[in-house]
Design brief:
Blueprint: H1 7-41, H2 46-62, H3 74-96, H4 104-124, H5 134-155, H6 163-193, H7 196-220, H8 223-226, H9 252-263, H10 275-281, H11 286-296, H12 302-318, H13 328-334, H14 340-351, H15 355-364
Helix pairs in contact: 1-2, 1-7, 2-3, 3-4, 3-5, 4-5, 5-6, 6-7, 10-11
């Protein structure tokens, strides 16, 4: 930090800070536009759609820090910057969880956050009645969105069978965490020292780093693998949707071992079964098992692979008149589902009806 005795000596420092801030924001906008192109050209999916909306909102929000921006559109710029936070949350969840579908509660949380940030912006400009503590609440909510997205990305990393995406999880979590700390520290220091220009430049540096990381990740991935090409389909018949196979050749010996492990040993009944345990039981390196289940069988995560076999057993049990008195919960737990909520969600996604309706239809027939 440069201390000066008069305004003339301090002016060059302010000019340099303004120029660096402008360069950083301009660079961030350029990188974000490249990322937007990647998302636009990726296969149509929830991650690519949320990613495109995220980058465009961030571009508009970055314009708020540029000099000579029309003050009349400041609320729009602020709203776009705020929208990037829940969009980042939705993008991360959709990218790292193929089964994720936004629920009404997700959209309600995003809308509530945007409403609060818009009111806080109007409050800061003296256009709305002040609400004490609203700024802090909005700030903490934004942090909660970011931390929750990181936690979800890290939690499910072991079950991810898409190798480029699995590797990107660690980079994503670490880099986003550092950027959040950077932005938080720069804002705290700026308010404590009243060096708002320097704080703004530091924030611009954080935006540039974030844009660089996201763009580098996207260009380092094979997009057809990183993003799903289609959403899971619910079928109205009694068949379980088949995995989409890829042209990668199958390992016949490994395929037989896995089939025996699932059909004869029924290893899928273990709710704690992991890719590491599967690899150990078939005495094959984990990377080969991942490659076979993903590239050979077409599954994008271990849960889908195991749930395929679990659902098949549940369907058979629900359609069996001899098991008509066995509770559905018992059947689901015996098949390896860890919770009734997860079982109901997976069953309805795959078969298009509830387990109760499925059983009733088959027993009546």
């Amino acid at each position: 930090m440069v201390f000066a005795s008069d305004d003339r000596s301090h002016a060059p420092s302010s000019a340099v800070i303004a120029q660096v801030d402008l360069l950083l924001r301009g660079g961030a906008i350029g990188l974000l536009m490249l990322a937007a192109v990647v998302f636009a050209r990726a296969p149509a999916s929830l991650p690519s759609r949320f990613g495109l909306a995220l980058t465009l909102c961030t571009v508009v929000g970055t314009l708020a820090g540029l000099p000579h921006a029309p003050t009349a559109i400041d609320p729009l710029l602020d709203l776009s910057a705020s929208a990037a936070i829940p969009l980042f949350w939705l993008f991360a969840r959709a990218w790292f969880d193929d089964a994720f579908r936004p629920k009404p509660v997700d959209m309600a949380l995003a809308a509530a956050f945007l409403g609060c940030t818009l009111y806080a912006g109007l409050q800061g400009r003296g256009l709305a009645a002040p609400i004490r503590g609203l700024d802090i609440a909005v700030y903490l909510a934004g942090m909660a969105f970011a931390i929750h997205a990181q936690w979800l990305a890290w939690r499910n990393r072991q079950g991810d069978l898409v190798e480029p995406r699995r590797q990107a999880r660690t980079v994503f979590v670490v880099s986003v965490g550092l950027i959040i700390l950077w932005l938080l520290g720069s804002e705290i220091v700026g308010r404590a020292t009243d060096e708002l220009a320097l704080s703004g430049m530091a924030s611009a540096a954080g935006l540039f780093m974030g844009a660089f990381v996201i763009t580098a990740l996207l260009f380092g991935l094979r997009h057809p693998e990183a993003f799903p090409t289609a959403l899971p389909r619910a079928t109205g018949d009694d068949t379980v949707p088949e995995a989409v196979t890829s042209p990668e050749p199958l390992d016949a010996a490994l395929g037989q071992s896995l089939a025996r492990m699932m059909t004869q040993d029924r290893a899928y009944r273990d709710p704690e079964l992991t890719i590491g345990t599967i690899a150990a039981r078939v005495e094959t390196p984990e990377y080969r098992v991942r490659r076979h289940i993903n590239g050979g069988l077409g599954y994008r995560n271990v849960s889908d692979y195991l749930n395929e076999h679990r659902i098949a057993e549940v369907r058979s049990a629900l359609a069996d008149p001899a098991q008509a008195d066995v509770p559905i919960l018992t059947i689901a737990m015996d098949a390896g589902f860890g919770s009734l909520v997860m079982f109901n969600r997976v069953f309805k996604e795959r078969l298009g009806e509830t387990p109760s309706a499925f059983r009733r239809r088959h027993l009546e027939n």
